[in-house]
From TrEMBL:
The lineage of its organism: Eukaryota, Metazoa, Spiralia, Lophotrochozoa, Mollusca. Residues 33-45 have a biased composition (Polar residues). Residues 28-47 are annotated as: Disordered. GO terms for molecular function: heme binding; iron ion binding; oxidoreductase activity; oxygen binding; oxygen carrier activity. This is Globin domain-containing protein. PROSITE patterns: GLOBIN (PS01033). InterPro entries: Globin, Globin-like_sf, Globin/Proto, Globin_lamprey/hagfish, Mb-like_M.
Amino acid sequence: MINVCQNLFKFDDFIYVRSRSDICHDNEVDMTENGSTNGSDSGSPLTKEEVDAIHETWALVWSDKKNNGIEFFVKFFTHFPEAQDKFKDFKGLSIEEVRAHKKLRAHALSVFYAIKSYIDHLDDLETLTELIRKNARNHVDRKVGGKEVKWLVPPFVELLEEKTNGKVTELHKTAWTKVFDVIASISDEEIEKAK
Ligand code: HEM
């Protein structure tokens, strides 16, 4: 069990401080490893435990967003070279050339800031959906639909594995997969609308 309702918590060599209000709601909740619900009726596809799991892992990624963004894109293009071809700045470059490219940092940060806007609104489904839809619309001409969005899951989980020294649980994986599934499904809707 990882107690998420404490001011200080640690993933081995990574220690950071968060405010109680950021991670705790009305009552103290111990995050379990099995992803069971604690009875949320908000209409969200995520349980309260999954939302906590997202926040605690996102905090790790966000705390070093520039470097983690670069690592994420390198992993993304390594897993799915066809994704790299969609980026005009990176098409045809070796993975080391991409890693060193001055535009990679900006690309990666733009994507992470967009994901952060989703994570900040997990408790407000209407706003969350509109944020995702806006970005999905911007991706229609790039032919990025649900299938392509789901490509993001393996590199993201791999990044989390590294950031937590292998302490990513099934709960974390399920929670993040659900987030990317929601983004994927809205992306497919926007592709369909544009036909
Ligand atoms: C969580 C999912 C994603 C988010 C939040 C996201 C976010 C963004 C943002 C904020 C931008 C810059 C603003 C814009 O031009 O629209 C962007 C650009 C772009 N994205 Fe995504 N993206 C996602 C998934 C993907 C995927 C899966 C692909 C490809 C397989 C992709 C391909 C692109 C391309 C090609 C650009 C244009 C880059 C350029 O300026 O040349 N995106 N994305």
